[in-house]
Amino acid sequence: KQRSFKNLAAQSCFAALAQADPARAVTELRSLPKGEMREGSASSVVNVLAKKDPSAACDLLASEPSSNGFSSYYAPEIMMEWGKTDPTAAAARLASLPDDIAGEYAVGGLAAVWAQADPDAALAWAKTLKGDRKAAASTQVYTTLSREDAAAAWERLKSEPGHLRGKTSAAIHNVVADEDPKKAVAMLKGMEIPSERRIATSQMIQNFGWSETRLGFELAYQLDDPTARREALGSLMYYAAWGSGDLLKEQMPKLTDRERIDTANQVLDGLMKKDPKEAQDYFLALPETQRSPDDLREMMGAYSRKDAAAGLSFAMSLSNPQEQTAAVNGLFATWG
């Protein structure tokens, strides 16, 4: 308790010092021995510098290695604050920071702020980036553009290179889907190049998961790639199991035997969050060829956290010795 109090006190003191005298705060910070107090105090100083002197904040992020990840936490905030006043300078500084300090979230944050003031300049900068940074920045720019005029943003996106269209189109679809999900699906189906449509479909399904699960299923059944289809259905079956028993029953006959096996773990997980009794009934209703001991173990781990006594009763009621063993192991593994 005493150590915790000292660390909290140090963080408060350094935050106040950074407000009054940033240079001295950095100097005093670097005189501390490496450890928990220094890391906590560094995050306090960075938090203040993000608004007062973002360049100095970046210097501190780069020079203070962190075991608790405060660098990647504060980098987006720094870039967004800096982007409001001098996005070009922020972009130049960002280029010198590695991904473990300033990754996609920092890039996206800067792009979003920059696009509000000058979308053309923000997009031009985004196109100079590579890989995930390029996708993150472009997505944020097109999100901003689509909020102003989704139709115009969609037409503009059509002139972009193919790899960028597939990854970025979801930004426009998501904005449209907030108002009219079916219109967003129609836009998606109108994409002519299969590879781009496949990428955009997977991303839209992820966003539809909870709010528009039925539409998500409609898209998932159109996926040709077996891996993408399996992952999409697993996610959607989880949401259906947790949120809508009727939707779950509606979708089950549409799945192949292999898909029912592959998605059983997600269904059980969703049902456990809703009602453990429904999860055990679902498991027992599965043909034995579709029951997985691994899925049962995971289900019982969740059961032990919700109602251990009921979980033990269910485990002992199983007639298959292998399943009973898996259930008991899963139940007690959580208790450690």
Can you tell me the overall shape?
flat
Q: What's the mean pLDDT score?
A: 88
Query: Low-confidence stretches at least 5 residues in length (pLDDT < 50)?
Result: none
Cα distance spanning the termini: 27 Å
Largest sheet: none
Q: Number of DSSP strands?
A: 0
Q: What assembly state would you assign to the polypeptide chains in this entry?
A: single chain
Helices and strands: which structural class? Answer: mainly alpha
Report on the structure:
- The protein is mainly α and 336 residues long.
- 81% of the residues lie in helices and 0% in strands.
- The chain has helices spanning 2-20, 22-30, 36-52, 54-63, 70-85, 87-95, 104-117, 119-126, 131-157, 162-179, 181-189, 194-208, 213-220, 226-243, 245-251, 257-274, 276-285, 293-317, 321-335.
- The radius of gyration is 25 Å and the shape is flat.
- The protein starts with a helix and ends with a helix.
Considering the chains and any ligands shown, give keywords for the structure.
flat; 81% helix; 336 residues
Please summarize what this structure is.
The protein is mainly alpha-helical and 336 residues long. Helices cover 81% and strands 0% of the residues.
Describe the SSE topology.
Elements: H1 2-20, H2 22-30, H3 36-52, H4 54-63, H5 70-85, H6 87-95, H7 104-117, H8 119-126, H9 131-157, H10 162-179, H11 181-189, H12 194-208, H13 213-220, H14 226-243, H15 245-251, H16 257-274, H17 276-285, H18 293-317, H19 321-335
